[in-house]
Amino acid sequence: MSAGTALAGFADPVLDSQAAFRAVLEAMSRPGRIQRLPVPPELPPGIGPAAAAVLLALADADTPIRLAAGAEAQAWIRFHTGARAAPAAEAAFVLDSDAGLLDLDPGTEEEPERGATLILEVESLSEGSGWRLSGPGIQATHRLAVAGVRDGFLADWAASRARFPRGVDVILCAGDRIAALPRGIAIEEG
Amino acid sequence: MTHDPGYNFAYLDESTKRMIRRAILKAVAIPGHQVPFGSREMPLPYGWGTGGIQVTASVLGPRDVLKVIDQGSDDTTNAVSIRAFFRRTAGVATTERTAEATIIQTRHRIPERRLTEGQILVYQVPIPEPLARLEPRIAETRRLHAMADYGLMHVKLYEDIAKHGHIATSYSYPVMVNERYLMSPSPIPAFDNPKMHMMPALQLFGAGREKRIYAVPPYTAVRSLDFEDHPFRPIRAPHRCELCGSGDTYLDEVLVDDKGGRIFVCSDTDHCQERQAMREAAE
Ligand SMILES: [Zn+2]
């Protein structure tokens, strides 16, 4: 048993998974609004609490994962979810800060639901300033400040969004908090 | 309350819930698009809304308060059974009050009271494909959605107008979601369609037999199809509710004797009782 698999997952796998899913659902339904997730009591190095919680709640043997979080985190996620590793372009969930939005599977026109979910760990998330988001889930506009996304993210986002209904949905994670960017949301720089 | 330990929480096993949860998230990200899912056998027959039940079971947590309505009423056999099912398998609190519910599972109505941001409305859907009666080939409907080619539906509605002088569809009246996907609102009366537009609550749709989930996120444009010279009109019976006096709610016609006597009453029983109580308080 490696160090990664010695650590537990969620304290209560059934109810914590439900609560984590509800937080992701709320985040995806109301883009840019920050939600807090129940997190595992212990974590291997290389993965943050929210990103870990999202994967524990949603990944399994049916969802290939691209994980660039180090060997221990990889072993831990695989042990608790059963998800197998895949290249970024073929993964349903991607946790890899080097992966570009346009490199991931956007699904097809007939099956856009096959588009990947990108889990991006960032330095911080706060509401009320920063990007201006608009689109379904947002009454008029919503402000979200994100520190620590890579240069060119907004240009990639615009190019990805232009493919709608194909596209990639993003879950931004900072500590135990998340905010989501479903593929159709318009983002203007603040 | 706790759930019956003889069941998995909310009946479904964890891998089924996870699969349905992933489908729900993609449905929310692509408003109005039907996402296939691996529907499970449920201990209730299909006509009872197994799609809605599976969505509710996957979303529900122990702190939720569940309301279930069938044609606007909380006390039909169907609504009572579904509430009892989730009290037993998930230990959740249930209510008949729209305002108190965090999740409302419905068949054939949207509550009259404006729903709020803290609520999720789960629809039971018998036929998720709005083009089903116009194009029976599933592969072809999928292609039409991919191309947003909805000419067939416009032709059908226009034929209605030519034949009847107006659009004769009064249930399952097709809508455009965020101006991209044509969607069936399930068999709600067309009267309810405007409530879907920019609703603060999340709307989830589950079709068990057809194995489809779709969604309308909060604050999303939902437009009933119409024509400039024949605008959409939400229709209701031109009467007042016999019980609460309402002139702006959806009414059911009820026979009161065997001589053909009939009255009109609100289909939304909770809303009607609330109005009756307000009326009594004012007197
Ligand atoms: Zn009434």
From TrEMBL, chain A:
Name of one Pfam family that matches: PhnH
InterPro entries listed in its UniProt record: PhnH-like_sp, Phosphonate_metab_PhnH
GO BP term, pick one: organic phosphonate metabolic process
NCBIfam families from the UniProt entry: PhnH_redo
Source superkingdom: Bacteria
Protein name as catalogued: Alpha-D-ribose 1-methylphosphonate 5-triphosphate synthase subunit PhnH
Provenance organism: Falsiroseomonas stagni DSM 19981
From TrEMBL, chain B:
Record-linked Pfam families: PhnJ
Recorded catalytic activity of this chain's protein: alpha-D-ribose 1-methylphosphonate 5-phosphate + AH2 + S-adenosyl-L-methionine = alpha-D-ribose 1,2-cyclic phosphate 5-phosphate + methane + 5'-deoxyadenosine + L-methionine + A + H(+)
Keywords noted in UniProt: 4Fe-4S, Iron, Iron-sulfur, Lyase, Metal-binding, S-adenosyl-L-methionine
Gene Ontology molecular functions: 4 iron, 4 sulfur cluster binding; alpha-D-ribose 1-methylphosphonate 5-phosphate C-P-lyase activity; metal ion binding
Gene Ontology process terms (BP): organic phosphonate catabolic process
Functional summary from the UniProt entry: Catalyzes the breakage of the C-P bond in alpha-D-ribose 1-methylphosphonate 5-phosphate (PRPn) forming alpha-D-ribose.
Full protein name: Alpha-D-ribose 1-methylphosphonate 5-phosphate C-P lyase
Classification of source organism: Bacteria, Pseudomonadati, Pseudomonadota, Alphaproteobacteria, Acetobacterales
